[in-house]
Design goal:
The complex is a heterodimer. By secondary structure, chain A is an alpha+beta fold. Chain A folds into 3 domains: 197 residues, FAD/NAD(P)-binding domain; 43 residues, no CATH class; 100 residues, 2-Layer Sandwich (D-Amino Acid Oxidase, Chain A, domain 2), CATH 3.30.9.10. Chain A is built from 11 helices and 18 strands. An 8-stranded mixed β-sheet of chain A has the order 4-5-3-13-14-15-12-16. In chain A, strand 8 and strand 9 form a beta hairpin. In chain A, helix 1 packs across helix 10 and helix 2 crosses helix 10. The longest helix of chain A is centred in the first third of the chain and has 20 residues. The radius of gyration of chain A is 21 Å and the shape is globular. Chain A starts with a helix and ends with a helix. Chain B is globular, with a radius of gyration of 22 Å. Chain B has 3 domains: 185 residues, FAD/NAD(P)-binding domain, CATH 3.50.50.60; 145 residues, FAD/NAD(P)-binding domain; 74 residues, Orthogonal Bundle (Arc Repressor Mutant, subunit A). In chain B, the strands form 6 sheets. In chain B, strands 1, 2, 3, 4, 5, 6, 7 and 20 form an 8-stranded mixed β-sheet that branches. Chain B has 14 helices and 23 strands. Chain B starts with a strand and ends in a 10-residue tail after the last helix. Classes of the chains: A alpha+beta, B alpha/beta. At the A-B interface, helix 6, helix 9 and strand 16 of A face strand 5, helix 11, strand 23 and helix 14 of B. Strand 16 of chain A pairs antiparallel with strand 23 of chain B. Bound molecules: flavin-adenine dinucleotide (2 copies). The site of one flavin-adenine dinucleotide has 35 residues of chain B, from helix 1, strand 3, strand 5, helix 3 and helix 4.
Chain lengths: 374, 481
């Protein structure tokens, strides 16, 4: 998220410094997948953001090189296992189409033509040609590389420990743990601290409720390309939108360029617990096999986990914070922060340079949580 | 004591599950069972003995050192059969922490098993450390340990004309074993200068027995007229389908090649080893505190009772520091006594503990002296070409690793792994982890740290396992159990 902000702000002529306590992509971005999905979103402000993002990622792919980002518009296939689910999915796609999503309802024959190894128990589904992906760490690295070329400075291994305020209490910079540059002044500060953004916002006295939602991903041994799209069950959409603390797994299966198959991802609210959970891995494996029976004999090589930054209302926090003038937020994108990074960076750059915004940021305003409790 | 296949229902809980049946694990299991603890001893191999006593079925031990000790340990396994459940052919893919202790998940003959214990002892040993050089992925280039394992485990001599290269005292037994088995060893090329060992006379005297062993190997080499060259190594292997020869060059103290010293030698096989890398993923999985040892390896930190930083987890042998079979035996015995004490209350004899600790200290200072005598300085990086492969699983070359740092801004091996894929393949960074960490640190203008090594050493799934087997676990979708 920070990288996209740096990219678009430098493109708009702003001078940018990026302060990162670890390594680039070392937060959740290096611990998730890089799906850029429109398929999993119901009509509403997040879908608007996703559609804009999808277009911007296509442009970024052209500008920075699709190879470099491993940008691939392979499309998504959503699978319904029962006639009832298929019917629900058809209602869902109809709503999406009205909002500008390309979604085609398909029957079993088309489904098996798109994904020959899919379980024959599938009764129908939908095809979403707009769904794409990037490799998140490569995307982050290349966005920053271009930002650096336009003058941005990137300080890795430097933690923000507080904010600098002026007489009117406006934010005019950050304090860091760097002995050489303990204070960095800036006209604006963007909080893109992901799952730790709530903590950072707290330091500015402008709290935003960003919490961790853990996810595991399984990676198989390399195979010849056998899974061609992002394939997931229709139940996935319900899970993404759920606020349930309990474990939810609804698997997304896809092949990667390296030949490995990625199986993701679970969702559960367990704080920052890094301990591997075999029940979760087992469920992911079982669901993946349910979609693609041949996976049963394929070896699992590794698994990893990350903590999605989520807000209680499942919308990101994007825009200036009236409680701390000079501070803007770009956080809380939950399981879509790679996909939504492009539009978020672009809209904030428009905001800072006074350009006409492509989208209204009101639904994402940081003060909405305080309003709700007021 | 039966162990249960992975299916719901209550199962036996051992006091101690020992992971690895090399010298350390064997010594642990026998010492603990002798104190009345219920022990499971788990190893992937078909027979106990680990790296040191790797042998064929029916082996009489003639070619092995300390075989008597091995026989006694094996007899100990038999003698305590009522308490000691020996599981060979069980590959551990994960160790799970549970309320009551630990569940060790294994794969045996294609089926999942769960072995439960109140404590675990990580005794997973070490494997050859490799540094890349041009041609090192050519068929015919082996690790010294693989050549040794072929010989000891299967009675197979790896080639006809063999060059042995790298650093460390273990090159000598490998070369001697090959010569005795009838191979022509064209030379032993020791990149270091072990004479430097003389600078630590105190530890050397205390371990005269060990040195005599080395002298014995040197005599074998002399008898077979095998040249032994120090400050010299194989810096390139030639051949496309298989090795046809090597380039050997002299090195300075930092391991840069001396100009004009390169010469080529004909051979069909190369055995290379630059010390050892401890097999630590199970310790890392369990969250044990790790540190960088004197030889630059990542090891589990242990106290005077072989306890790691995690409650109930012990470590013994090379998983907590490379130091040879004798140190592994001592650490194993200590771990066994203490884990038995902690789980059964059987208090070990104080004098026995004191004696073990004294011997551990002596062996450790000997190991530390060895580490100082056989360092791996960073000059190996100057032997590389830009297109030399670093990660053979994913075919990542030196240039790609360096580019991830210089162009993409990565500052640590983990980020480089995510950008350029070294360590993402089948071996999960076991082979290329050390080299990747070294290249990244160099490109980032600093020394390698424990965190760098850790970034390449974490393997939540220690060994590949079929998804169907994973899914079939306790709460899976009901596939074949
Ligand atoms: C299993 C899983 C699968 C996912 N799959 C997808 C997917 O397919 N598509 C998708 O779009 N999204 C996906 N996501 C979500 C996505 O990864 C996140 O939404 C996204 O990475 C968030 O990016 P970010 O830049 O906001 O956060 P991060 O990448 O976490 O970046 C925040 C950075 O801020 C730094 N930081 C924090 N505090 C400080 C401080 N005080 N000082 C300095 N630096 C600080 C952190 O070190 C971190 O690097 C997935 C997530 C998970 C866990
Ligand atoms: C070529 C060579 C020559 C040597 N020569 C000498 C010598 O002359 N003198 C000397 O003192 N030492 C020598 N050594 C070193 C000696 O072999 C080691 O010090 C000793 O074997 C270490 O004992 P250990 O019990 O710690 O580990 P190991 O002997 O390596 O045993 C570890 C065991 O753990 C098992 N294991 C690991 N991971 C798993 C898993 N995930 N699942 C199941 N099982 C697992 C392995 O199968 C192995 O059996 C030599 C080593 C080599 C390679």
């Amino acid at each position: 998220m920070g990288a996209a902000c740096a990219y678009y702000c430098t493109a708009a002529g702003l001078r940018v410094e990026v302060v990162e306590r670890g390594a680039i992509g070392g937060g959740t971005s290096g611990a998730g997948e890089g799906n850029i999905l429109v398929s999993d979103k119901a009509p509403g402000p997040e879908l608007e953001l996703a559609l804009l993002s999808s277009r911007l990622w296509r442009e970024l792919g052209a500008e920075l090189g699709a190879e470099a980002l491993e940008y691939e518009a392979k499309g998504g296939v959503v699978v319904a296992g029962s006639a009832e689910t298929a019917e629900g999915l058809r209602r869902f796609t109809a709503g999406q189409r009205a909002s500008g999503v390309h979604a085609t309802d398909i029957g079993p024959d088309e489904l098996f033509a798109l994904e020959p190894r899919l379980t024959r128990e599938a009764v129908g589904g939908a095809h979403y040609p707009q769904d794409a992906q990037v490799q998140p760490v490569l995307a982050t690295a290349h966005l920053l590389r271009h930002a650096r070329r336009r003058g941005a400075r990137v300080h890795c291994g430097t933690r923000v420990t507080g904010f600098v305020r002026d007489r009117h209490d406006a934010v005019i910079g950050v304090r860091t743990d760097s002995p050489t540059a303990p204070v960095r002044h800036a006209r604006w500060v963007i909080n893109a601290a992901g799952t730790w953004a709530g903590e950072l916002a707290g330091l500015a006295g402008a709290p935003v409720p960003v919490l961790p939602r853990r996810g595991f991903v399984l990676v198989t041994e390399p195979l010849p390309r056998v899974v061609r799209h992002k394939v997931y069950t229709a139940e996935y959409v319900a899970n993404v939108a759920s606020g349930d603390a309990g474990l939810e797994t609804s698997v997304v299966v896809e092949g990667t360029r390296g030949g490995t198959v990625l199986i993701g991802a679970s969702r559960e609210r367990v704080g920052f617990d890094r301990e591997i959970s075999l029940p979760v891995l087992r469920r992911l494996a079982a669901q993946a096999i349910g979609l693609f029976p041949f996976l049963s004999g394929v070896s699992l090589l590794r698994s990893y986990l990350g903590f999605r930054p989520y807000c209680p209302d499942h919308l990101p926090v994007i825009g200036p914070d009236p409680r701390a003038p000079g501070l803007l937020h770009a956080c809380g994108h939950e399981g879509a922060g790679i996909g939504l990074a492009s539009a978020t960076g672009h809209l904030l750059a428009q905001r800072l340079t006074g350009a006409e915004p492509d989208l209204d940021l009101t639904p994402f305003r940081p003060q909405r949580f305080a309003e709700a409790t007021a | 004591m039966p162990i249960s296949p992975a299916e719901p229902g209550p199962a036996a809980v051992h006091d101690i599950v020992v992971l690895g049946a090399g010298p350390a694990g064997l010594a642990t299991a026998v010492a603990a069972a002798a104190r009345g603890a219920r022990v499971a001893l788990v190893d992937a191999g078909p027979r106990p003995g680990g790296q040191y006593w790797r042998h064929r079925a029916g082996d009489d031990g003639a070619a092995h050192h300390d075989w008597d000790r091995f026989r006694r340990l094996r007899d100990g396994l038999d003698a305590h059969r009522d308490l000691l459940d020996h599981r060979s052919g069980h590959t551990v893919w994960h160790v799970e922490r549970t309320g009551a202790g630990f569940t060790v998940h294994t794969l045996h003959a294609g089926r999942p098993y769960e072995i439960r214990g109140r404590t675990v002892v990580v005794a997973t040993g070490a494997y050859d450390r490799q540094v890349p050089f041009p041609g090192w992925t050519t068929p015919g280039v082996f690790t010294a340990g693989a050549v040794q394992a072929l010989l000891k485990g299967q009675g197979v001599v790896a080639g006809r004309r063999i060059a042995v290269a790298g650093t460390g005292p273990f090159l000598l037994p490998v070369a001697a074993g090959l010569a005795e088995a009838g191979a022509e060893v064209v030379g032993v090329f020791e990149a270091g200068r072990p004479l430097a060992f003389g600078r630590h006379p105190f530890t050397v005297v205390r371990n005269a027995a060990k040195l005599a062993e080395g002298a014995g190997y040197l005599r074998t080499l002399a008898r077979h007229r095998i040249p032994y060259r120090t400050r010299t190594t194989v810096v390139a292997a030639h051949g496309t389908d298989s090795v046809t020869g090597v380039t050997v060059a002299r090195l300075d103290a930092g391991w840069r090649t001396l100009p004009g010293s390169a010469r080529t030698l004909d051979c069909d096989t190369v055995a290379v080893g630059y010390g050892f890398t401890p097999q630590t993923e199970l310790a890392v999985q369990l969250g044990c505190a790790m540190e960088r040892d004197g030889d630059g390896s990542l090891v589990a930190r242990v106290d005077s009772r072989q306890r790691s930083s995690v409650d109930g987890v012990y470590a013994a042998g090379e998983a907590c520091g490379v130091g040879g079979a004798r140190l592994s035996l001592i650490e194993g015995e200590l771990a066994g006594l203490h884990a038995a004490w902690a789980t059964t209350g059987a208090r070990p004899d104080r004098r026995r503990l004191a004696r073990l600790l004294r011997r551990r200290a002596a062996q450790r200072s000997f190991a530390a002296a060895l580490h100082r005598a056989y360092p791996v300085p960073g000059g190996w990086r100057t032997w590389l070409e830009e297109d030399t492969v670093v990660c053979r699983c994913e075919e990542v070359d030196v240039a790609a690793v360096r580019r991830a740092v210089t162009e993409l801004g990565a500052t640590d091996p983990r980020t480089v792994k995510l950008c350029a894929r070294p360590g993402m393949g089948l071996c999960q960074g076991r082979v290329c982890g050390y080299a990747t960490a070294g290249l990244v640190a160099e490109a980032d203008g600093r020394e390698v740290t424990a965190d760098d090594l850790r970034g390449m050493a974490g393997r939540p799934i220690a060994q590949p396992l079929p998804l169907g087997v994973l899914a079939a676990g306790a709460d899976g979708a009901g596939n074949e159990a």
